[in-house]
Amino acid sequence: MLSSDKVDDELEMTMVCHRPEGLEQLEAQTNFNKRELQVLYRGFKNECPSGVVNEETFKHIYAQFFPHGDASTYAHYLFNAFDSAHNGSIKFEDFVMGLSILLRGSVREKLQWTFNLYDINRDGYINKEEMTEIVRAIYDMMGKYTYPALRGDVPQQHVEAFFQKMDRNKDGVVTLEEFILACQEDENMMRSLQLFENVI
Amino acid sequence: MAAGVATWLPFARAAAVGWLPLAKKSMPKPPVDKKSRNDEILFVNVSGLRFQTWKNTLDRYPDTLLGSSEKEFFYNEDTQEYFFDRDPEMFRHILNFYRTGKLHYPRHECIQAFDEELAFYGIVPEIIGDCCMEEYRDRKKENQERLAEDTEAEMATDIPLPPDSTSRERLWRAFENPHTSTMALVFYYVTGFFIAVSVIANVVETVPCRPPKGSVKDLPCGEKYSLAFFCMDTACVLIFTFEYLMRLFAAPSRCKFMRSVMSVIDVVAIMPYYIGLVMPENEDVSGAFVTLRVFRVFRIFKFSRHSQGLRILGYTLKSCASELGFLLFSLTMAIIIFATVMYYAEKGTKGTNFTSIPASFWYTIVTMTTLGYGDMVPNTIAGKIFGSICSLSGVLVIALPVPVIVSNFSRIYHQNQRADKMRAQQKVRLARIRLAKKGTTNAFLQYKEDGGLQDRDSDSTALCVKNRSSFEHQHHHLLHCLEKTTNHEFTDELTYSEVCMTESVGYRTSRSTSLSSQQGLSSSCCPRRPKRRAIRLANSTVSVSRGSVQELDMLHVQKVAHQRLSVCASSRSSLNARSEDLKLNCDDRDFTAAIISIPTPPANTPDESLPPSPAVPGILRNSRSGSFTHETVKISSL
After folding, report:
1. Which residues of B touch A144 (CB under 8 A)?
2. Full-model pTM
3. B8/A114 CB distance under 8 A
4. What distance in Å separates the CA atoms of residue A143 and residue A152, rounded to the nearest whole number?
5. Could you tell me which residues come within 8 angstroms of residue B557 by beta carbon, excluding any fewer than 6 positions away?
6. For chain A, percent helix, then strand, then coil, each to nearest 5?
7. Do B614 and B551 meet the contact criterion of CB atoms below 8 Å apart?
8. Residues of A in contact with B479 (CB under 8 A)
9. Residues A118 and A40 in one domain
10. Which domain holds residue A138?
C-alpha cells in the first residue's frame, strides 16, 4: 500500500522535508497537551516521513476506512477542509489544528469547521449545488450494496430536507449564522457533538 | 488493514463531525475504551535480547500474536516484560514488520526456520514485501520440491497400496512405476529389450550381406534372411501389441490415455506391421508399403518411457516451439530473398544450375548454413557478390538465435517445472489477499449480525463481540455513524440482490400491498433486521409464494396462543444453541413461529395463499421433531 507513497515521499523528501514548529508552540495553539501531541506526531511521522500529506495519499488512506464504496470525492473535500493554507498538502500543524477544533473545540468552532467543509468555494454561503455535491460524496461512500437500496434521487431529497431545516429566510443559501442557529436548536446533533470528544 | 491506517483512524473519526448536520438520526454511542490511553513502552525479551517498543506499534496488527491479547500469556510479572523463548535474530525482522509495515525475508536464514517463526507470531507470509517476495518464493519452492522428491522416492519404494484396490488399479500402477513389483520390473526390462531388438533389426536388415551362392549382386540382409527378420518383427510386434492392450485396459481414463503422446507412438509403432499383413502383395502399393516401414523407426521413441531424459527433451522442445518457429520463419524469409536474387543474377549464364527459384533454395540453404557442398556455384560476378553476402548473413541469421534457444532450453526447462506450481501458488496468494480484504468489509457486516450495534450495556454483549480489538470497535462505530447519517445500511451483495428480487416480484404480481404492509407491520413491532431475515427466508426457497409471506405476516400480527408458545419454547431450546442468529429486540416467540412456518409451503404448489389457521397446527405438529427445527435453524441462518 505504501510503496507508491514512499516513492512520492522520497521525491518530496529531496525537495521538501517539513518539520513542525516546536512542541510548546503547538501546545499553546491547540487544545492538546504535550503527551497527546507526541503520540499524534509519532503516528503522523511514521506514515509520512517527509512531514506532509498530499491529496493522493490522503485519499488512499481515507479509502481504507470505507472499503464498501468510493470515498475519494468526500476525501477531496475533507482534504480541502484541513488544508487551511490551500497549498495542496497537509502539514502536521494543519492536521493537529483541525483535530484540536474537532475534538476539543467549542460548539461554535466545530460548527464553523463544518460550515467550511460544506462551503466548497469558500464564499461564505452554502448553496444547493455545493450541498448536493457533499451529500452525493457521502452517499458514494456507502457503496452499492445498501439497505434499503439507493435510488437516484435520495441525495437530492436529503439536500432538500437539509435546506428545509437550515435555510431560515428561504433565500436559497445558508449563511454561517443560520447554520449555527439551526444546529444549536437540533438537540440530537448537540448530543452527538459530545460523543466525539474522547476519540484521542 | 495496513499498519498506518490505525494511526489515521482517530482523524477519520474526528472528521465524522462533518456528517452531523446532515444526519437524520442521532449518532450511536462510541465504544468505551476502558484501557488507559497513555502510550507506554513495552519490554520484549527474546531469549535474552531485550527489545523495547511502543505499545501502539504492536497494536497495529491485532490479528497477530504480539498485537492481540495472546501475548499476555508470555508476560512475566517478576521482570515486567514479555518473554519469548525464540530466535532473537529473527525477532528483529518480525519487530521491524510492526514498525514499518513491511516484512522482509533475511536471505541468510533457512526458509523453514523463518516460516516457523512467522507461524508462531501469527503473521501470514503473504505480507512479505515485494522486495523480498521473489527470493522467499523461490527458496520455498526449492525446499518444497526437494521435500516432494524425497517423499516421492520414499513412497515409490514403500508401496502402501490400499488393500481393496482392483487388479486394474494394480496393473496401472505396475505400468507407471515399474519399481513397485518384480513382475513389473521384469516386464519393463523385457519391453525395453524388445524395443532395442526391433530397432537393431530394422537397422541391420538394410546392411548388405554376402550374396548367396550363385549371385553377384550384394543383397541387404533383410532380403537374404527375410524369414528370420520376419519372425523377429512378428515377435516384437506381438509384445508391443500385448503391452498396448494391457495399458489400455488398465488405464483409469481410456480416452485420456488414447490421446496421450506415448500411446500414439505405440500405435504408430505397430500399425505398419498390421497394415503390411493386410495389404496384398501388389506392385503399386508396395511403394506405399515401403513408406510405411519407415514408421517402424518410431519404435525408438518408445524408449522415452524408459528414459527420463528423452521425456524432458521432448517436453522442452515442445515448450521451445515459439523460439524455433521464429528461427524457422526468419530463415525462410532470408532464403526466399536470397534465392530470388541469386536466380535473377545467374539467369543469364548458360548451363547454369540455378534453373528456378525453388532450385536456388537449395543453394541458399547450403550457403547460409555454411555447408557449402559445391554442387551449385554462381558464375557471374553479381552472383558471386550476392553469394558472399548470403553466406555472411547466413552466419548471422543462424548464429544469433541458436544461443538464445540453447539458453532458453535450460531456463524454460526449469521454469516449466515450476510454472504450474507457481500458478497454483499465485492463485492461493491472491485468494488469501482477497479474503483478507473481504474480511475487513465483511467484518462490519458480521459485527452487525452479531448484534454489536445494539446499544447495550457491556454485560449483555455476546462473547464474539467482546473479543474485537478496540481498533475494530472504533472503525465499526465510524461505519455505523455513516449509516445513521445516510439512513441506509450496509449489506452484502447477496442480500442486496435478494431484496431487489423481492421488490421485482412484488411489482410483478402486483400484490405489493401485502409486502409493504408486512414491512409496515414488521417495522412497527420489530426492528428492521428480522424483516430482512424474513425476506431472505422468503427468497431462500424459490417456490415460496406470496401466500407464505402473508402467512408470516399473519403470524407476526396474531397473538400467539399459549399452547403454541409452549411448543415454540421447547423448540427454542435447540435454537438457543444458535442464539446469535436470533439476537433480536422484538418478540422472539413470534419470530420463531414465523421461521417454523416457512419450510412447509414449498412442498405444495404455492400459487394460492394457504389458509393460515388450519396450516398452523399442522406446522407446529411437525415442529416437534428435533431434526425439523434443526433444519429451520439452518434456513434462518441464511
Report:
1. 496
2. 0.46
3. no
4. 13
5. B521, B525
6. 65, 5, 30
7. no
8. 65-66
9. no
10. 106-199
Name which of B5, B39, B474 is nearest A64 (Cβ-Cβ): B5
- Distance separating alpha carbons of residues B310 and B304, to the nearest angstrom: 5
Residue A16 lies in a domain: no
**Closest alpha carbon within chain A to B34:** A198
Q: Which pLDDT band holds residue B517 (cuts at 50, 70, 90)? A: very low
Same domain, A132 and A91: no
Asked, for residue A88, whether it belongs to a domain, the answer is: yes
Contacts of B314 (CB under 8 A, 6+ apart): B261, B304
pLDDT score recorded for residue B387: 94
pLDDT digits (tens, 9 = 90+) for B179-228: 778 888 898 898 899 999 988 988 888 888 777 677 777 777 777 788 88
Please give the DSSP secondary-structure letter assigned to residue B103: B
Probe site for chain B from A6, A7, A35, A46 (most B CB atoms < 10 A): A46
Contact A146 B489 (CB under 8 A): yes
B447 grid coordinates? 459485527
Tens digit of pLDDT for each residue in B280-316? 666 666 666 677 777 888 888 888 887 766 777 777 7
Are residues B7 and A142, on separate chains, in Cβ contact within 8 Å? no
pLDDT, mean of residues B164-187: 80
> Are A114 and A98 members of one domain?
no
Give the Cα separation of B471 and B474 in Å (integer). Answer: 5
pLDDT one-digit tens code per residue, B105-130: 988 888 889 998 898 888 888 888 88
Burial class (CB in 10 A: 0-12, 13-18, 19+), A99: buried
Distance CA B194, CA B226 (A): 19
For residues B506 and A2, give the distance between their C-alpha atoms in angstroms, rounded to a whole number: 48
Amino acid at A19: R
CATH of the domain at A34: 1.10.238.10
In whole angstroms, give the CA distance from residue B223 to residue B241: 25
Query: What is the phi/psi pair of residue B29, to 5°?
Result: -70, 140
Residues B247-260 as b or e (16 or more Cβ within 10 Å = b): beebbeeeeebeee
Whether residue A179 sits in one domain with residue A115: yes
Cα B267 from Cα B368, distance rounded (Å): 38
Q: What is the per-residue pLDDT across B566-609, written as a single tens digit (0 to 9) for each?
A: 443 344 444 343 433 333 333 434 433 333 333 343 334 433 43
- How does the average pLDDT of chain B come out, rounded? 72
A125: CB partners within 8 A, 6+ apart: A119, A173, A174, A175
Q: Residue B263: which of B274, B277, B253, B273 has the closest Cα?
A: B253
Residue where a domain stops, chosen among A79, A105, A131: A105
A100 shares its domain with A121: no
Residue of A132, A146, A153 to mutate, testing the B interface (most B Cβ within 10 Å of its Cβ):
A146
Please tell me if residue A42 touches chain B, with a CB cutoff of 8 Å: yes
User: Are B479 and A46 inside 8 Å of each other by CB?
Assistant: no
Q: Which residue of B has its CA nearest to A113?
A: B18
CA distance B97 to chain A (A): 13
Mean pLDDT of all residues in B380-394: 93
* Domains along chain B with CATH numbers: 41-156 (3.30.710.10), 167-306 (1.20.120.350), 316-428 (1.10.287.70)
- Cβ proximity of B401 and B323 under 8 Å: yes
Residue written as grid cell 495389404: B279
What are B465-480's pLDDT values in tens digits? 455 677 778 888 888 8
SS3 B449: helix
**Is any Cβ of chain B less than 8 angstroms from the Cβ of A176?**
no
Q: Which region among B389-398, B405-414, B432-441 has the lowest average model confidence (pLDDT)?
A: B405-414
Name the 3-class secondary structure at A92: helix
Spatial separation of the C-alpha atoms in residues A9 and A11, rounded to whole Å: 5
Do A34 and A101 share a domain, yes or no? Answer: yes
CB A15 within 8 A of CB A79: no
